[in-house]
């Protein structure tokens, strides 16, 4: 029996798998987000408590002993802890926007581009570089009290095992890691004015760290493996590992990932190259800020339930009777496939004749266009898998296949937790049939006529987006 732990932004999950990759038990707990004036934070004790609770629930449901546990979770943000692994302040989320003025300045003076040319990562307000620089300027006492600036899963690993605080190459990829040496680039630290805080960067464990559990949530002595974070873990869980193959995660964050052996630091500074367990292999990642969160906002605003979405998507035609949505709802703007901290969502073409179905379809189409933009920028040439909460809507998956103009390998279940187990097994030498573990649950083919329509509509979307970006910079 193997357990995967996925510490998400709004939900913490644990899943137990047998040796064939079949899910035997799943447990989840919601965790809160504090949002105010662009500041987005989380309570680390609440997050860790949710981890212990879901592990207690899952392990109680299976009779067999747990041989191995793999850990993954949300990336970016800043999780400051003291020498005992306890929080010194609330965690700053990857969704946080307080450092947007700093990123604006770094965009204007060339710092963002200079960092990208060295590391392949384009900073955004919720990434560790800007957040640490903001805290250094506005809350230096918090940094003074901290022993290390961790990422989410690293905090959990530290408390589950008591092991020394470390991170892995995937989390460290943004923005300080040299993708070739797989160590920190001190020039980047200097460019961000953080040389005097260099000691806060967690040591990079390569390969990923493993340690025995202390006994909370998992039986004492259970092997726990830390990493990679949720985007590369999902790529492993969906089988998107061959160069050119891609994964689209339709979750809170809309993340496009393409496996590659080519490192191109000369293109537009956007997205990032995520280090993997194999040197010379990366994931070209374009993680847009908002995915299902945009649809959730529209559903809440219109009073529509999630279980009504499929019916409403069928109630209005492609194009949503002229309603258009640019789905950039995040308070920190957008980070992929471009960085625009001040970009905001736009809803156009609405009249008294517009219906909730039009608004829902237009939002799903807008998210699809954003996904197409990200996948093109990431260099997709092979197969495309899709996972995340959005896969629970068959109608949305059909719409997405049409908007993208390609078949979708739908991978359902706890894909991040599954990938965490696959990574843990690889780290510990446990043989798994990864083809069986990552087999898709369905393949959704696009409709040729609708795909042709959406190809034209996508070009119009890019034109509207460019005008919106110009207004954001004005």
Automatic annotation (TrEMBL):
Keyword Kinase: yes
Protein's UniProt keywords contain Kinase: yes
Keywords: Kinase, Transferase
Origin superkingdom: Bacteria
Short name of any one Pfam family annotated for the protein: FGGY_C
Start and end residues of each Carbohydrate kinase FGGY N-terminal domain: 1-205
Listed InterPro entries: ATPase_NBD, Carb_kinase_FGGY, FGGY_C, FGGY_Carb_Kinase, FGGY_N
GO molecular function annotations of the record: kinase activity
Carbohydrate kinase FGGY C-terminal domain boundaries: 249-425
Family matches, as PANTHER family: L-XYLULOSE_3-KETO-L-GULONATE KINASE, SUGAR KINASE
Family: Belongs to the FGGY kinase family.
Protein name: Carbohydrate kinase
Taxonomic lineage of the native organism: Bacteria, Bacillati, Actinomycetota, Actinomycetes, Kitasatosporales
């Amino acid at each position: 029996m193997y357990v995967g732990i996925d510490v998400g932004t709004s939900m913490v999950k644990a899943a137990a798998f047998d040796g064939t990759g079949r899910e035997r038990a799943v447990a989840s707990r919601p965790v809160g987000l504090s949002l105010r004036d662009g500041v987005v934070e989380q309570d680390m004790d609440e997050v860790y408590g949710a981890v212990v609770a879901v592990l207690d629930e899952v392990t109680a449901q299976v009779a067999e002993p747990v041989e191995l546990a793999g850990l993954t979770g949300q990336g970016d943000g800043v999780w400051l802890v003291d020498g005992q692994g306890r929080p010194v302040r609330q965690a700053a989320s990857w969704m946080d926007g307080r450092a947007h003025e700093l990123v604006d300045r770094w965009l204007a003076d060339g710092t963002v581009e200079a960092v990208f040319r060295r590391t392949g990562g384009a900073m955004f307000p919720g990434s560790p570089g800007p957040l640490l620089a903001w805290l250094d300027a506005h809350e230096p006492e918090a940094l003074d009290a901290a022993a290390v600036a961790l990422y989410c899963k690293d905090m959990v690993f530290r408390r589950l095992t008591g092991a020394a605080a470390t991170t892995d190459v995937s989390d460290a990829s943004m923005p300080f890691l040299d993708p070739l040496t797989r160590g920190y680039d001190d020039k980047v630290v200097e460019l961000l004015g953080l040389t005097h805080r260099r000691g806060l960067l967690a040591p990079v464990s390569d390969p990923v760290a493993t340690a025995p559990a202390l006994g909370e949530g998992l039986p004492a002595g259970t092997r726990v493996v830390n990493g990679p974070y949720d985007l590369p873990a999902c790529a492993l869980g969906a089988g998107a590992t061959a160069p050119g193959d891609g994964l689209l995660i339709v979750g809170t964050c809309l993340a496009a990932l393409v496996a590659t052996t080519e490192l191109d630091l000369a293109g537009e500074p956007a997205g990032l190259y995520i280090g993997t367990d194999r040197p010379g292999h990366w994931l070209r990642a374009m993680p847009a800020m908002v995915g299902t969160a945009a649809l959730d906002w529209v559903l809440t605003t219109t009073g529509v339930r999630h279980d009504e979405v499929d019916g409403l998507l069928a109630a209005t035609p492609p194009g949503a009777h002229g309603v258009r949505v640019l789905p950039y709802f995040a308070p920190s703007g957008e980070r992929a496939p471009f960085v625009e901290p001040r970009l905001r969502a736009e809803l156009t073409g609405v009249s008294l004749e517009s219906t909730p179905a039009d608004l829902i379809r237009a939002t799903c189409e807008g998210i699809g266009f954003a996904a197409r933009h990200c996948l093109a920028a990431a260099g997709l040439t092979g197969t495309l898998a899709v996972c995340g909460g959005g896969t629970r809507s068959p109608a949305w998956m059909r719409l997405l296949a049409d908007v993208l103009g390609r078949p979708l390998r739908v991978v359902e279940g706890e894909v991040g937790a599954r990938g965490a187990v696959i990574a843990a097994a690889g780290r510990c030498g446990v043989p798994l049939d990864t083809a069986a573990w990552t087999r898709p649950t369905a393949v959704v083919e696009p409709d040729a006529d609708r795909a042709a329509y959406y190809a034209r509509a996508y070009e119009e979307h890019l034109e509207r987006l460019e005008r919106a970006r110009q207004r954001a910079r004005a």
